[in-house]
Amino acid sequence: MNDPASPEQAGDAEYPEWYYDLLARTMGEEKAAWARLPPHEREAELTALHRAFDTPDDLSVWPAELDGGCDRP
Amino acid sequence: MQAPLEFLDTFRRDLRSGGLRFAITSGMACVRYGLQQTTKDSDWIVPPEQAEMLRELLARREGGLAPWAIRYRSIFGAPLEAEWLAGGWTSHLAIRTEATGSDHHLDFFGKPPRVKAWQTDPAEADFADRDTVTRMKKTDRDKDWPIVGGLAAQSFARGDGKALLHLQAVEPLRRAWSATPDAERGAAIAMRPLLAAVDRTADDLHLEFLVRAERLVWEAVNRGRYGLYQSTWKAFYRRWQGAEDCPWPRSGPFADQHHAIVSAARRHGLPSAPLTPSARVTIYEAGLSRAAVLANLEPARLAAVAPPIDEVLP
């Protein structure tokens, strides 16, 4: 395998720029921007969200990997 | 209140000090890998044979000076017991660590779907590696597939050859394939037949179409797999509740809850491994048929890009 990380690596980003472009296309700009944060900042932001909003994790009462459960046809 | 990520740290320390082998997977692993923002539940892989150790650890927490409240969750939950975990079931618990706090939801896998042998990440020993998480995310939920593509892209950027098995975007897929030595290509194609089409498919749009057709196979087979577990559970639950006045879930010590569901599972026939060899083949073939219709491809053409049964239902 080649070295896909080196030629396009930008600044202190964990991954090359094409990776964040891919995230922006497939997941949206907001998630791509969040992905650029250092891990401790990502997790601090997530903890702040958890403390501020007491919402269920998922609308499904069954786990994703079993998938869906009673709320699915 | 203990935030979900704080609880995650507490529980992983417990598992480590208890000598259990484990891996945090799915949503919380994606958080760690920078791919998901908002999950609160946690998913854990544990070897089925260590289920008893896990229950003992939970019992110690229940009896501690700051006791945890631990219960099976409502609606669905196979026993946290080796034989059911080994058969592909998952167990779903709620844990409250503080009297005034919220429940933390934990899902335990013994045999994670689509994973032959799970691994932890070399740099994050408590977390499932990207290959394991990527395979688990190949569900039939639309929201999981950007995660599949994102994790695969990370793996590629990190120089991990397994990325080739999961990449969804055409451009990095072509780059990864062109960088794969000839000697490794045959093994890669055996696991992901679509790779044989990369070089002979010059049009990116056509290659994207084939990747989507391949995804339809993963989705259709997963749909059949969970449908089997779902219908098996519901049939058991109806037998149980029809025969006994035994509300579920119930309160009380976790050991008592566990005894109740194990006893019910044995009395009312919750099969430990519903995915029998014949059911596996049936589900796979039905998935191929469904995917061929949805992709509007002749079955033979779909078969050329379909992942083999050993990958989809190992």
What does this structure look like?
The complex is a heterodimer of chains A (73) and B (314). Chain A has helices at 17-27, 29-35, 39-52. By secondary structure, chain A is mainly alpha-helical. Chain A is flat. The model of chain A is unreliable at 1-11 and 58-73 (pLDDT under 50). Chain B contains 13 helices and 5 strands. Chain B is globular. The model of chain B has no long low-confidence stretch (mean pLDDT 94). Classes of the chains: A mainly alpha (73), B alpha+beta (314). Chains A and B meet through helix 1, helix 2 and helix 3 of A and helix 1, helix 2, strand 5, helix 6 and helix 7 of B.
Biggest pleated sheet of chain A: none
Mean pLDDT of chain A: 70
Helical proportion of chain B, percent range: 40-55%
Percent strand of chain B equals 5-15%
Question: What structural class results from the helix and strand content of chain B?
Answer: alpha+beta
Helical fraction of chain A equals 40-55%
User: Average pLDDT of chain B, to the nearest integer?
Assistant: 94
Number of strands of chain A: 0
- The DSSP helix count of chain A reads 3
